[in-house]
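Subject: sequence -> structure tokens, single chain

Hey, anyone have a minute? Need the predicted structure for the following. Not urgent.
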Amino acid sequence: MVAHNPLFSGRFTLKKFQATVLNDIWPEVLFFTALEVKDLGFNSVLLPVLGTALSLVISFRTSSAYERYQDGRKMWTNIAAASRSLGRTIWIHVPLNREDKGLQRKQTTLESIIEKKSFINLLQAFPVAVKHFLRGEQGVYYEDLYPLVSFLPRYANGINDPTDRLPLWHSDDNEQEPIRSHVDNPSHDQEKCHRHERGEPTLVGGEPDSLSSSRVGKKCEDSFYPEALPDVESQPPLKPAKNPPENTIYDFIPLLRLFRWAIRAILRRAAPRESRCRKARHVCVDSNVPLEIILFLDNYTAFLARSDLIQPPIVAALGNHLATLEDTLSKLESTCNTPLPFAYQAHLRMSLWMFLLFLPFQVVTPIGWVTIPGTAFASFLLLGFLEIGQEIENPFDYELNDLDLDCFCEDIQRQLHEITAHTNPDPSEFIFSPSNQPFVPADERNATQIVASGENYQTPEADADPGMNSVRRTLVRSWKAVNTYTRDGNRYSREKALSNLSG
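Reply:
Had a minute. Here:
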């Protein structure tokens, strides 16, 4: 993430140059410039020296950005692994039978399954909440998040009192769109002022405060399937699961942004002071939604421990998985909210511009007309690497080169549903099956045939005493046969290997 550019925001003042390093280095620059004022000729020796130094700096810039990109991917892998482990532990180790014993309360098997599945659904909401959190989209009122958390308590005292609303359900009434530091939407504040002047209803969670279906708003063409989530009603209509900024001509011709800034400055000065529409200041009360989800999951772990429903090692395992999720969330937040210092960015870009500006004067004598394509290629190469480093430094947004967070969330969703599809059967229901051949390759009989032979197991060759001696010999023969197959490949047939072992 690149720090906010202070030079083109608000009123222009000379103090804004303190965001660069110009105010620190101008005496040295002036001094060395004065030494060369008598001779304005360019020496080509500057080309390899400055070019090498500048290339090293740009390489370091790109490498550090790519390292952040890779760290973001690794941390999302940690979220997926911890989510799978946490879901597996809850689904398998939390018992279904509940009796009135101590802090336990009797409930049916169906109620226990619903309880576990609901908390695994809440675990599924964690990566979705992290995705919106990293993109600066506050609150829970999104099509892919709200259906998974809508059952959570909303009020501290269980009474429908707005003053007791819990942090998770606070929404910023003054924000119509998710907060994005990288989106410049000048018509946003004007539209809100017009709404206020027309007396339209207050916006809650980004939409008019009226009961409506959750399936409203702009839909992206891919990567969201509402059919896989509950269809619940929401007081504020839900925002889209994906809401990338719309491309404008300024994204394709960045130079026009300078003209846009100048026109706005002129219009602001020409407009009467009382008619200017300014955004009202307010206090943000939005909560850290991923952290709130971790709190509910941790509370469930504490409930299981207090009720003696799980053993202490399982409690420790659940705690470790939750700690992994929280630690990963902190690292992702640090990566997303640690901007590149603007002074570094500005100085590097200005240095590159100056190098490219003086490059033709240094190479025109030796290469002549080739200077034109050569300069174009050098500009493409150096500016391209600089822009790549800037683009991938925050890999959590909607750019084409960013990480596909929606795909990661859907992958975790599929895996958690695969875990809950496991029926936790008794091993005796499937172990002693005609399809199970446990002693292959030394003994090809299935489990049903082996059990039918009684306690005195006998090897197929009957060359050992019945019982455990035969079992052990069969297992040793299986090892020898597998060792022969895997080491010698096709040199031995299966029958030849078994005959050699029996001999």
